[in-house]
Structures
1.
Amino acid sequence: MIIDIHAHAAGNYGSVGSIKNMALKYGIEKIVLCTSPKNNGNLGEPPSMPFKQKPDSIYMMNRMNRFAYKHFFKDNGDGNQFVCELKNQLPELVLQFLWVDPLDAAYMNNLENTIRTYQPRGIKLQQSWNPFKIDGTEFNNLVDICCSYQLPIFIHLYSKREVLKLLRFISENQNAVFIIGHLIGTDFFSKSSVNLKNVYFDTSSSNRIQSNDIKQAIEAFGYEHIVFGTDTPYISFDEQINKIEQLNLSDNIKEHIYSLNTKRILSI
């Protein structure tokens, strides 16, 4: 069975019926779902661009995504509420990660009430959408709240500078649990002497990440720190599975990556 730790409420995960179909087709036990950008449901795979296959292309894509999010995405209401409605209709299948913008003062002031209302299993932060800084007070305050509620933080990092800032933050905040999206910054993490006991890495990505990159992450951090995600609907589900299957891993290691590591993080 599979737990998809990285998915957005759009496309194949945009309705109760399509979520059920995906679960049946791929043997999905749980889907960790968060909102799509500004709750847009009609999203698909991004256009193919040659530079996307370069190792550092994620940082260029981040700049493009932040610009698009600010200027071109139409606001379609409360994405967290939409995800909660899907969760309430599929409680055995959907786990909610609450998307939070640390720079939204009004939302942050009410965050603890929101957590108690929605009962999320984690928090999703997206620096490619929101220009908060790891060394900002807003991020520090958010992490304090997450620690008090024992919620892991899934973060999509924006730049090499922010990767290094997070490494310094982790060294001083060993109780916080982080899931790093798209293996961003693993070159820095692997060379660091920081204790990464509570840090995990999500396998999802476009052609920028190949099977060998996942293999290197397993070797650097241990298979117990690698979790399977798809970033649906942005990336093909089959493509993400194939990247794992091509590695000829043992059944035990695949089981940990596909589900057991996420179960441990989320206490399932």
Note: Strands lie at 2-8, 28-34, 94-99, 122-126, 153-156, 178-180, 199-202, 226-227.
2.
Amino acid sequence: MFHCDVVNLKISKISLERATDFIESHKCGASLFFIGTVRDMNNEKEVTGITYDSHDKMVKKSFKEIYEDAIKKLKLEHPVAFVEHVKGYVPLGGISIIIAVACKHRSQVYEFSRFIIEEIKKKTPIWKKEHYKGEDAKWLEGQQIQIKK
């Protein structure tokens, strides 16, 4: 089972409750939540918030491919994943991404969650504009996206 979405903060909000409800399964003996939040410092600058932008259709496609790759590479049993990333302005301490996973065994959830977040960073078209205290906001350089062949 898999759910993914890009949550436009002008319309909705990201929800830990929705993630919890989605991953509940009697087939799974372990679940794990990864919550990404806006931190206060980056590159020695005081961050006050981040604006995220994305190509929503491509982001969802990327999330689905990452989920499918994880199942194959990690040989997961009864995998369930919920992935949502925000689009819009997130203040300091605000949640930017939720990854909730469940599997048959605890060792699998750690690998599964880690695989998803690391692959999102490599393959998903999400852009960040950091807002700084006393300075102009700046779009951050990302890493080159790895295209699946």
Note: The chain has a mean pLDDT of 93.
